[in-house]
TrEMBL record:
<dbReference type="InterPro" id="IPR047687">
    <property type="entry name" value="OMA_tautomer-like"/>
</dbReference>
<keyword id="KW-0413">Isomerase</keyword>
<dbReference type="Pfam" id="PF04303">
    <property type="entry name" value="PrpF"/>
</dbReference>
<protein>
    <submittedName>
        <fullName>4-oxalomesaconate tautomerase</fullName>
    </submittedName>
</protein>
<comment type="similarity">
    <text>Belongs to the PrpF family.</text>
</comment>
<dbReference type="InterPro" id="IPR007400">
    <property type="entry name" value="PrpF-like"/>
</dbReference>
Length: 362
């Protein structure tokens, strides 16, 4: 079976979703056994290797991602989407997080592959996010019943303009941790640092940039190059994981470590998000929704820094601009839903050939 993959390749669509890129597969084209599948994905991406030279991964967590799409297992969805983060420099594949950027390309992929029939004009697609068990609705531009990637929507972190893919989520609080505030507290203290442990779609640890002697204006490279800072933040992350009901997070890509500071570009809050070992070039979709939600708590690092909007549109500033998050609340102020604008693009369609399995020399 595995040799057949090496010889014949595997059908794969390489797509950009939001500010990420990944390999999109039909579940039926991959092994059903998760261990076999994950071992194959490592060979496809070229991991573990910091430059992923023998695979299609882009040597960055943002371009070492996989989406596995299949017919829905639920009546309230049109497709199932499993997200897998393939670590770049470790032999780890994890399903411990969802990914809202890659999510933006799932509906176009499902239409391209015939899993969903497109309407003439716009096609709403209900996506069951297998990682969290929640659903999202994506709206795809489909003139004449075909996906169009061309349009006039621009998102921070992606050059040019493309067709809009608005995403809507409901009831994603506690999606991965079981509760919006998994410790029951708005703030906790870890290693002497005040943090908010929160999950509105993405487990995040919200930290004040100033508690790490940062201004919050640092570049991705500044943060990635600061080994002492990263070691301190990783120590907090490893302690936060069990407190957030995530068990041992040594080999997990969550929680994300979100450094916050007052907004500098007229937005709601400024962020630098470690995902978790490198700084995000912008911020994840669920990461932004969760950071925006943290701004609405009564206390905490985000609340202290935030300039709350009066139109419900939270502008979460990041190293390459700002992500706009629409937050929906019920009458008592509880966060019930969120909306984010993304774009997506089909980049390459073909067959991917995984590296051969290492053979014993004896
Ligand atoms: O938070 C990166 C990304 C993501 C995840 C990460 C994401 C999300 O930008 O929903 O999109 O946080 O690892 O693709």
């Amino acid at each position: 079976m595995s040799e057949a993959f090496e010889i014949d390749g595997i059908p794969c669509l390489w797509m950009r979703g939001g500010t990420s890129k990944g390999a999109f597969f039909l579940a039926s084209d991959l092994p059903s056994d998760p261990q076999e599948r994950d071992a194959l994905l490592l060979r496809i991406m070229g991991s573990p290797d910091p430059v992923q030279i023998d695979g299609i991964g882009g040597a960055d967590p943002l371009t070492s991602k996989a989406a596995i799409v299949s017919a829905p297992t639920r009546d309230d969805a049109d497709v199932d989407y499993l997200f897998l983060q393939v670590f770049v420099d470790r032999a780890v594949v994890t399903d411990a997080q969802a990914c809202g950027n890659i999510l933006a390309a799932v509906a176009p992929f499902a239409i391209e592959r015939g899993l969903v029939k497109a309407k003439d004009g716009e096609t709403p697609v209900r996506i069951h996010m297998v990682n969290s068990g929640e659903t999202a609705v994506a709206r795809v531009t489909t003139p004449g019943g075909r996906v169009s990637y061309a349009g006039s929507t621009s998102i921070a972190g992606v050059p040019g303009h493309h067709a809009p893919v608005p995403l809507f989520f409901q009831n994603i609080a506690g999606a991965m941790c079981g509760a919006l505030l998994p410790t029951g507290n708005e703030t906790d203290t870890i290693d002497g640092v005040e943090v908010t442990l929160i999950d509105n779609g993405m487990p995040c640890v919200i930290l004040r940039a100033s508690d790490f002697d940062l201004t919050g204006t640092e570049s991705r490279e500044d943060i990635d190059g600061n080994e002492a800072l990263k070691a301190r933040i990783e120590a907090i992350r490893l302690k936060a994981g069990p407190l957030m009901n995530l068990d041992d997070v040594t080999d997990k890509s969550v929680p994300k470590m979100t450094l916050v500071s007052p907004p500098m570009g007229g937005g709601t809050i400024s962020t630098r998000s470690l995902i978790p070992h490198r700084c995000h070039a912008s911020i994840g979709v669920f990461g932004a929704v969760t950071a925006a939600t943290a701004c609405m708590l009564a206390t905490g690092p985000a609340t202290d820094c935030a300039m709350l909007p009066n139109d419900g549109v939270f502008k979460v500033e990041h190293p390459s601009g700002a992500a706009e998050v629409l937050i929906e609340q019920n009458a008592s102020g509880g966060v019930t839903g969120a909306g984010v604008m993304r774009t997506a693009r089909k980049l390459f369609d073909g067959r991917v050939f995984p590296a051969c399995k290492a053979k014993s020399l004896v």
